[in-house]
Specification:
- The structure is a single chain.
- The protein has about 425 residues and is an alpha/beta fold.
- It is about 30% helix and about 25% strand.
- A hairpin with a 2-residue loop joins strand 2 and strand 3 (about 15).
- Helix 5 packs across helix 6 and helix 8 packs parallel to helix 9 (about 250-265).
- The termini are far apart.
- The protein binds ligand LLP.
């Protein structure tokens, strides 16, 4: 459920017509609904009420500090995968004891920053990383709380680019190697072994793979306990899918009920790292039609947002619904919604039945909250769009549009090239 709805023929975000925001901030822009963000977080969090748990929102899905602050105020922690995400989470006021750190390529500097900050858990993804963490913790005279991210070799049945828990993926350590890895970790003086983590993929539309992963994690936890390595934390990652088109993913309540059945005999805190399910349907990308173009073969609607603003269609062939911001009685067409980028792969929708848009119309690309702005780039030297948050009747610009000057901030012409250009 979200708060982007038509009143008569106008698309509203909560109490505000989307058209009014376009008139004031220009296009393209990302538009978030506060009520939707809050509701999605709370529904997810409350669904897990029967299990001792902490929701660590996956910062990578949407990293704006205003949104992180909102989740912090609702009790969220953060799942981070870089020093930059740690910085954002701390700036937003997420307490370090609610922050968990995943990722296969943590640098010494990042490990140091996280240790100094006092985060809750390092989800370690290799033995080499474990040894770096021990060395960095020793140099700071600190204890590092660790879990191994295990790779349970389970097929999440989602897009191959976002499947992470198969044996052939780069993530985690093979579950068979885990007991020896844990014994090694337990022997290191600056590490405190706390738990097991796993994250098998994103946009999952079934509960079964989560349950299968949890069963493997439980079996490992039992084995480690028998080995004298008791654990207090199980981190099951994120991954619950949303409806972009016709998908029917499990509700948070179904997901939580399935985990609760498995949890009965476990004396551990559950950490979860949802991203998409919280923010995915809480934002849209609003764009304006520049031109329409008919060829003998196809119709194109050229808008002022492209693959640099929303990469998902180009990168994963992902589906995002396309809706008019103001409905017009013009009928429908089959067309490609394309951006201004000089690549054939620059499309937001392909061969799609959509309204017969005309130049000047506003278009809403739906379900753009997760991996939307956070994956935007400056490709083709396009300033990244603003992010706007609506709360009831109020409008807040939570990130302003980049300028041409911001495109070259940080670039420098070396002395040997100084002087007249030609
Ligand atoms: N935890 C870890 C360790 C992760 O790697 C991810 C996502 C999450 C949690 C959050 O997963 P979620 O609940 O959002 O499914 N850019 C892709 C998605 C990449 C997901 C990467 N990892 C997309 O646009 O579909």
């Amino acid at each position: 459920m979200h708060h982007f709805e038509y009143r008569q023929d106008e698309l509203y975000c909560e109490e505000v017509p989307v058209r009014l925001i376009a008139d004031s901030v220009g296009t393209p822009f990302y538009l978030y609904s506060h009520a939707t963000l809050s509701r999605h977080f709370q529904v997810f969090d409350q669904a897990l009420a029967q299990i001792p748990h902490l929701v660590c929102y996956a910062v990578k899905a949407c990293s704006n500090i205003a949104i992180l602050r909102l989740f912090a105020s609702l009790g969220s922690g953060a799942d981070i995968v870089s020093g930059g995400e740690l910085f954002r989470a701390l700036q937003a006021g997420i307490p370090p004891e609610r922050i968990v750190y995943s990722g296969v390529g943590k640098t010494d500097a990042e490990l140091r920053y996280a240790l100094r900050s006092g985060i809750r858990l390092f989800n370690v993804e290799s033995l080499q990383e474990l040894d770096r963490l021990e060395a960095v913790a020793a140099s700071l005279d600190k204890m590092a709380p660790v879990a191994f991210r295990i790779n349970p070799d389970i097929d999440p049945r989602t897009h191959p680019y976002i499947s992470t828990g198969l044996a052939k993926n780069k993530f985690g350590i093979p579950v068979g190697d885990a007991p020896a890895a844990y014994r090694h970790a337990a022997s290191l003086p600056h590490l405190r072994v706390r738990g097991i983590s796993c994250h098998i993929g994103s946009q999952l539309t079934e509960v079964a793979p989560f349950v299968a992963a949890l069963e493997r994690v439980k079996a490992l936890a039992r084995e480690l306990k028998a080995d004298g390595i008791p654990l207090d934390t199980i981190d099951l990652g994120g991954g619950l899918g949303i409806t972009y088109d016709l998908e029917q993913p499990p509700l948070p309540a179904d997901y939580a009920a399935a985990l609760a059945r498995e949890w009965r005999d476990l004396d551990c805190t559950l950490l979860v790292e949802p991203g998409r399910v919280i923010v995915g349907n809480a934002a849209i990308l609003v764009s304006r039609v520049l031109y329409t173009k008919q060829t003998a073969l196809k119709s194109f609607v050229v808008v002022d947002a492209g693959m640099n603003d929303l990469a998902r269609p180009s990168l994963y062939n992902a589906f995002h619904a396309v809706q008019p911001v103001v409905r017009q009685p013009r009928g429908e067409q089959v067309a490609d919604l394309v951006g201004p980028i000089c690549e054939t792969g620059d499309f937001l929708a392909r061969d799609r039945v959509m309204p017969a848009f005309a130049a000047g119309d506003l278009v809403a690309v739906m379900s753009a909250g997760a991996y939307g702005f956070s994956m935007a780039s400056n490709y083709n030297s396009r300033p990244r769009p603003p992010e706007v948050l609506v709360r009831g009747e109020e409008i807040f610009v939570i990130r302003r549009r980049e300028t041409y000057a911001s495109l070259i901030a940080g670039e420098a012409i070396p002395a040997f090239l100084e002087g007249p250009a030609c």
